[in-house]
Amino acid sequence: MDKSNIQGLVRETAWNGFLELNRLAFSEALPRNSESRALAVAMRMIKKHYPHIEWVISFADGCQCGDGTIYRAAGFVQTGIKVNKSILRLSDGSVTHKMTQVTGKNRADHFARTGGSWSGQGVPLDGYQMRYIYFLAAARVRLVPKEIPYAEIERRGAGMYRGIARGKQAMAGVPSAQRRGSADRHAPT
Hints:
- The protein has helices at residues 3-6, 34-49, 69-73, 104-113, 151-155, 168-172, and strands spanning 18-21, 55-61, 77-83, 87-89, 95-97, 123-124, 128-135, 160-161, 164-165.
- By secondary structure, the chain is of the alpha+beta class.
């Protein structure tokens, strides 16, 4: 995570005042609500053992997983919905993130050569990325972006599970409109 891009989401956050919850995945064989239980335990442990942590950020990727149902159930605040053009299907059928194709010293050189644009292999998967924040302290009043009501996911047609649309969009058979209006200048076209 590029902390400098995230830190400003909540004003006056110390450099070590937040964490990213990354790669939450559970087996389908586990009991119902295992994800919510694990999140609750993790948040209590962070709050108890790391009192300087004010908030936790996480992202839900509808292209690969889901739209963040577990974060909503756990009381996370939704602060972003964006078109996701970063997850690519390669010609061999595998799925990767666009930045895995340009790493380390090559990344700086690549962006210098392309004027800050990304270029590479693969076709972007249709989908959305949602951003969620969980507050462990009284930092919510310092939140910079507006909170987005959960209903906005369905309104935008962004409800997804494992890359498949759900909600009214799925029932109506409406094709994905995710490419429309993206402001991501690094997104592949």
